[in-house]
Amino acid sequence: MSKPFLGVMMLAKDEEDTILQSLESTRSVADEWIVVDTGSRDRTAEVARSFGARVIHVPWEDDFSKARNAGLAHVRAEWVLWLDADEELRDADSSWLEVLRHTEAKSFWLDVENLLGPSMDDRLIHRVIRLFRREPGVYFQGRIHEQIVWVKEGFSESTQAVAAPWRIVHHGYRPEIIARRDKVRRNLRLLRLALRDHPRHPFYTYQVGVTWCQAGRLDRAALWLSRAASLTPLQAPYRPTLFRDLGMVWLALGKFRDVELTLRPELERYPEYADLFVIFADALRAQGLREEALKAYLQAAACPPPGAHVGSAGINSFRPLHAAAQLCLDLGRLQEAEQSVRQALAARPGWEPALETLAEILAARDVPEGDLVKSLASCAGTPPDQRSLVRALLHIGAYGEVIGLLDSEDTSLGSENRPLRVQCLVALGQWREACRIVELSIHSGDRPVPLSEEEIMDYALARWAQDQSLDRRLELPPVYQSIDARLMGSPASPDTQSHAAIGPDILRPLIQRAVQHRLIPLAEDLAALHSNGMDLFLAKTLYREGWVYLAADRLLRLLTRRELDAEGLFLLGEMLYDKGHWDQAAELFEQSAGLGFSRARPAAAAAALQSAKRMLEEAEALRPKRGGFAEERRAVGRALELLDGIGWHTHWRGRTRRNRHESAADLPLHDRQE
């Protein structure tokens, strides 16, 4: 029998659901497969054998290297590719095997893409030696997070390894998989054992911090990562990634100044590491330092791909460019914002967040909606990603344009077509047509498509907007029949839930949906069905949706009844602030802050600074010859710019921005019967 050329070696335990897919991904390039089973209780070994792999049973001894070295002893092939059973090999072109046959290299890097969520944009990419020449003196080292070492040569993998064109996709870091497999508990146990054997080991200390981060314990993660940062030598290859992770944890904990002070010198050491620039920019932005943050985002976009460093997908292209566009939009610099977001979409066509931002910019520029759709479609990929395009149009309330897309012959939205059409028709006030579509789809055909929760809400709102009861032939949730009876003043049928079952959990999404569809009186009627906090919820919803004046009356009434909570006090204070009533606004902000509403503290400071600025202006007008007023005014103005950059004030985007600028008198309100 001829000697195999490329062997795949993997560890597996209870991986019957994934191991076949992993092995299949290597079929075109490998001619030997060794599976090291460390104690499976399912069909893992059977599945591996059915593929053609040789299964080696090895007892688990809390040591990954020991298990891998046991498998390595059984490999006969000249080259070894090592994988885990939750990984897949991608771009595996067998023609590249000829390179391996003639290369003098001893090992190759592969890019490993760790999937963190359902989208391929949710990826963390790092480069690891996964392909190496099988020869004496090569073995795995490390109880956990093991690495290949060459005993005889003092071999440095960072300088000797060569990049391979293949890549690996790893599914095991998705949050639900980590939780299901209890990886956190296992890894912490192994890391404690490793630190027992090697106290103050910087890499193991670092990995404890990473593991606590995966567990959601950011306080502990920050402690261990900080400790690792103090232990890790400057030349350590993982040091840049350590500071990336420390910066991200501190950012999540709100320690923005710590991020800034820690990363500023690291940017000089690693001027091509885009992740550090983005984290640094996020920290500056959170402190209101918008111009410096903008500069850092653009520096990130100019960095090369992460290479040997761990990096997020798009971290040197569409992500920082989109962040820069949002900053420019906040600053009112629409031309710069559009330039940056178009660059982001050129790097990642159809990316939904950027497409929504472009739609918002074009709407702010009052671009005609027909031209707006064409412009968005040109940035939505080839062919255009219709889902992203539709969501961008919904974001700015361009419902008629969405219906136009749904009517086009090349629409590919399938089962999403009907609920989207119904949503847009209700938003446009075409309630009868919306109801007709729903009822026709339910009553016709042997297998009608069931209604989604959003479609049920839209249908019910459209019927009630016409003062019509729900069609009892539709099998709607019983609570809707109960609401219908209350709104229409008719007795509930015997099989519906009691009126007491109409609680806040069902009313809140209905009220929110009604306000989004501009059905304000109907939202009021729904709020009246429950006395516990629904008036306040309606007022907040109106405010967030841009109907500020309608919200103001309700918030003032609630204030006189002393029924405002911390957020309600803040929103009312924000209205007074925008009207220039800074002293009254400051009083409400202070009350809100005292109740624990975090945005109220910078708001109170801004109101106090506005009052100080006004007093300085008045003093300067009374005593124009006295010096110093102008400089003090400028200092106050700079402080206000910083506070404004923190983002304490409500921002209305897209559809809600349009509502903000419309008069309440222009609302297409329907009449309600007495």
Automatic annotation (TrEMBL):
Domain Glycosyltransferase 2-like: 8-91
Molecular function terms, GO-annotated: transferase activity
Name used for this protein in its record: Glycosyl transferase family 2
Alphabetic keyword roster: Transferase
Keyword Transferase carried by entry: yes
Ranges that cross the membrane: none
A Pfam family matched in the record: Glycos_transf_2
The species this protein was found in: Kyrpidia tusciae (strain DSM 2912 / NBRC 15312 / T2)
InterPro entries (UniProt xref): Glyco_trans_2-like (IPR001173), Nucleotide-diphossugar_trans (IPR029044), TPR-like_helical_dom_sf (IPR011990)
